[in-house]
Amino acid sequence: MKNIFVIILSLFCEVAFSQIAIGKTSVSSPSASLDFEIANRGMILPWVTSTGAVAGVVNGTMVYDLIDKKVKVKYVSGWKDLSVDTSGTTVDPVTNVDGVTIQNTATENTAAKTSIGTPTSTPGILVLEDSNKAMILPKVASPHLTIINPAPGMIVYDTFNKQLAVFNGSVWTFWKQ
After folding, report:
1. Which domain holds residue 83?
2. Would you call 128 helix, strand, or coil by DSSP?
3. Please, what is the end-to-end C-alpha distance for the chain in angstroms?
């Protein structure tokens, strides 16, 4: 009984505070809903067969489009390409295996969803639903030099150059405001 109470209390606290730290013991900012460990790893965006195939998409959705092998974000006017340099690839340079073949053999659970914050009907795999908090991307100094064999669709914040970095399977693209 005591274990059930602890689990219920933990779940309540997670929903009430709506802050999650991944790979570390606590969230570093009170304005963060999701915060990652500082390490030489990034967050991999969902792979989609095409942006046109994403149903019920909302502004701010980020994906890796398998048709043209690019990282994209949804805006009111349409999808914006975040990997502007060149077309990417899903072929692992070390194993020479195409990640799409691995992904295509897996059965997709279309009901899978994780929501951080107050749950709504917003579609997505990972949905941050806080009105006053944001996600802090994984922080990596010079990801193009320090992340060995990054996955297509990887996104990080480059702490050395102070800019967003996205990997399309071939090259890193850097975005600075």
Report:
1. 2-175
2. strand
3. 53
As a three-state string, the secondary structure of the chain is CHHHHHHHHHHHHHHHHCCEEECCCCCCCCCEEEEECCCCCCEECCEECCHHHCCCCCCCCEEEECCCCEEEEEECCEEEECCCCCCCCCECCCCCCEHHHHHHHCCCCCCCCEEEECCCCCCCCEEEECCCCEEECCEECCHHHHCCCCCCCEEEEECCCCEEEEECCCCEEEECC
Tally of domains in the chain: 1
pLDDT one digit per residue (tens) for the chain, 177 residues: 444 444 443 444 444 446 777 767 777 777 777 777 767 778 888 888 888 878 788 888 888 888 888 888 988 888 998 887 777 888 888 888 888 887 777 777 777 777 777 777 777 777 777 777 777 788 899 999 999 888 898 999 899 999 999 999 889 999 876
Q: Report the SS3 class of residue 33.
A: strand
CA distance 121 to 136: 23
CA–CA gap between residue 35 and residue 53 (Å, rounded): 29
> Any residues with CB less than 8 A from the CB of 99 and at least 6 apart, and which?
47, 90, 91, 92, 151, 152
